[in-house]
Amino acid sequence: MCTDKLAIGLGKTVAVAVILVWSLFPITFILMSSFKPGQDIFAVPPKFVFSPTIQHYVELWNGWGVFFGGLLNSTIITAGATVLAITTSTAAGYVYSRYSSRMLNASVMFLIIVRLIPPIVVTLPLFPIINAIGLNDTHIVLMVLYATFFVSLGTVLMRTFIDQIPRELDEAAQIDGAGRLTILRRVIVPLAAPGILAVAVFVVVFAWNEFLFAFIFTATRAKTAPLVISEMIGSIDGVDWGVLFAASTVQLIPVLLFVIFMNRYLVAGLTAGATKG
Amino acid sequence: MASLRLAGLRKDFGSVNIIKGVDLEIEDGEFVVFVGPSGCGKSTLLRMIAGLEDISGGDLYIGGRLCNDIPPRERGIAMVFQSYALYPHMTVHENMGFGLSLNKTPKAELDARVREAARILKMEHLLDRKPSQLSGGQRQRVAIGRAIVRKPAVFLFDEPLSNLDAALRVDMRMELAKLHRDLGATMIYVTHDQVEAMTLADKIVVLDGGLVQQVGSPMELYKKPANKFVAGFIGAPKMNFLAVKVQAAHGGTATVASEAISPIPVRGKGFDSGDSAWLGIRPQYLKPGRAAEGEGGICGKIVLIERLGTETIVAIETRANERVVASIPVDMELAFDDNAEFLFNPSAAHLFS
Amino acid sequence: MRLNKITEALPFLAPVQILILSVIVIPSLYVVWLSLNASSFGQSATFVGLDNYIRVLTDPAFLLALGNTVLIVIFAVHLELALGLGMALLFASGLPFRRVLLVAVLAPYAVSEVIAVAMWRFLFDPDVGPVTAMLTWLGLPMLDWSFEPSHALIMIGLLTIWLHLPFTFIILYAARLAIPKDLYEAARIDGATAFDAFRRVTIPLLGPAIVVALLFRYIFAFRIFSEVWLMTQGGPARSTEVVAVYLYQEAFSFNAFGTAAATAWIMVLASLLLATGYVFLLRKQVAGNVH
Ligand SMILES: Nc1ncnc2c1ncn2[C@@H]1O[C@H](COP(=O)(O)OP(=O)(O)OP(=O)(O)O)[C@@H](O)[C@H]1O
Ligand SMILES: [Mg+2]
What we know:
Shape of chain B: elongated
CATH topology of the domain at 68-254 in chain C: MetI-like fold
Oligomer: heterotrimer
Number of strands of chain B: 20
CATH architecture of the domain at 68-254 in chain C: Orthogonal Bundle
Order of helices and strands of chain B: EEEHEEEHHHEHEHEEHHEEEEEEEEEE
Strand order of the largest sheet of chain B: 6-7-8-3-9-10
Helix content of chain C: over 70%
Largest interface: A-C, 92 and 88 residues
CATH topology of the largest domain in chain B: Rossmann fold
CATH architecture of the largest domain in chain B: 3-Layer(aba) Sandwich
CATH superfamily of the domain at 68-254 in chain C: MetI-like
Number of domains of chain B: 2
Number of strands of chain C: 2
CATH class of the domain at 68-254 in chain C: Mainly Alpha
Number of helices of chain C: 12
Bound molecules: adenosine-5'-triphosphate, magnesium ion
Structural class of chain B: alpha+beta
Radius of gyration of chain C: 23 Å
Distance between the termini of chain C: 33 Å
Strand order of the largest sheet of chain C: 1-2
Number of helices of chain B: 8
Radius of gyration of chain B: 24 Å
Distance between the termini of chain B: 41 Å
């Protein structure tokens, strides 16, 4: 009996260790390597003790100014897309939660189906159109694209979260003299904050990391950080791994911290998103 | 302060007619209670008065003003919900002041009115708490306080006490009665608890199936129920109904009898001999003993004894397999399966078709 | 009055609907029209019926891309499901520091495809990659992903699993946590062993979540683009292309918008087909919940 328990405990420990290595080793490796001096990056087996240096960051700063422009673009686009997605899906989710009509019910199915259209499909018609109206290589295009590909999920999520707020609160506010917009702002939004945060996690992570749309719709002015990093990977004269790891670290740390900090909402959002549409 | 008039009020949900034409006058300052079984449309009617449900037909006047299409906030009403509906993210103070803050009442006045309401309800010490830090009874007070702050002409309550435990319910009931005396406002109160209805109401409105069955003071309803439904609904334990045949009828008196009851004359208009009817007798009017001449008598086997302390509820089954419940003094020797006899004064009986 | 209410709601609803219609729905429908015409960037179109579809479906490059995609989907998604399920059960069996471990498992969710590819390329680099070195040390064959297409596909599959395992895991873990404890207690009283309980309680009750996770991952793995593009650009010699990369090449390298559009609709139809299954299941689940 006792040995049984011991064996199970040992098995679990090994399993957990494997999971941790699988999830965290690649990330830690990049973060650590970005501080390794020159040849230490290539040491086999990998070195875990080394004298850290910021040499690669200096090189990044001096040689890849465009990367920091990319970071700025990514920040602007992520912020814009998040605000757009959150405001629109909260408003729509509120309506879906509180009103019912055959039209609305039908359009929920529509929202679900829209999520299943691969994003690359819309690049075909949008590419010439966006070029024609001169919006290519601008922030606004990516903001709108990123937001749009999350408003359907966002709306369904917000509906799920708002459904949990009793309708009597709306009615009490209505009797207190609040109009629809006031109810939304003063009652629904504060109480649906976890849902809003869940949507925010999705959009922020997506917009910050997205590659395909950025690749197709930006060239120089609105180029995002991932796009710059992809250029580092693909540079003809061999990859400068040290600089690449430094850039990756700079791009990764904020979103990693965000996900760690918001893990509760991410889990809630993933769960609700999968079961409710 | 305001009077209300409901004229032919109707409500449809889709094709289902829920409120089927309600006519009602409510005086200024009156405490009116809507009672009825679950699903009869009490809440719907109240919410129509509040403006939370659209009116499908008929007219609603509050203080003489036609209110069918007026939004809730302009009707001069306040409502207390069964679930309290306190805003969980606001403190008690903010909850109570929310309506005033929306119409830009100056801060000082808002604060004064919130404190005044809190004083009336003796909950000044709770003002900075969040609803989640309150007990059920305290939440109830906050909900009522929120209504008071609005200084409404009409208070609407939808089963406000049903989430409280029995003892607290009695306390709150008394407080509500006091509040009504102090504020003098019109109050409309929905419940399915007939004790609340009897103790609180100036006027009870009995609803069933979307229609008003009877309107009257508590004692009127108790003494002169307009039909079998009202008779059965008001009073506890429930009135006994026995199937009888009318043997003779003249001048507002009908002589009725059944297998279990020998012929007796009771009050009852509009019956003809040969009619089937229901004889209604409240359990409190049944006394143990053998019926003398001119009294009604029922006998049967005892099937249930409930000793409640101040009274004992006895149920017997008659020869006709009807169950009759009597409420009798406590100090009687009784046993299951014994035969028991009860008598009643025919003038205390009701006859329903 | 009722009509009035819906119109009152319209301003709240409009932004989402306008975004979706103008960015997704109308362009997608326009793609149908594109797919029925022969056209390239800047030229006027001529109607060719289903020609583009026939051309795509008979193009060996497309068939290879489709084959690769299906391989990745089948290999990656099912392996991912097995891993996710195992982890969900492990977590549910009670672990110390569960919250911390959960966050650790979630971490790859934050990593962009670009950085993931950078990591993978380094870790598996034939000359300097630490994983390559470890494989050699263990006497295992190394992944020669830049020359050997099947090795490249394995790399891409592993990378996809690494990136998306958090999603699958969370869905299954949440579903596992939703199974009430007393069911297991009841099963124990009925004399079930741990394995019986797993087979007769856990699996049936996790069924819907497993199906949902699978369908989601099928649909999303089917559109895989960035990982492949960044890893191999479809090379060498178009041997590692997937459907989305094929589409991109047709449209933006060869200017063949007609066949690209046809490819796009083949993708949409494949996704919708999978989605129908998903919606159908969801309906059944909803109907089940009502009872
Ligand atoms: N929004 C609605 N749509 C359709 N039917 C409704 C709606 N609201 C209420 N009903 C129906 O109207 C009837 C009356 O409901 P109401 O809530 O007024 O009953 P009630 O008398 O308050 O009952 P209870 O004592 O249980 O609260 C019920 O049969 C209910 O099913
Ligand atoms: Mg009700």
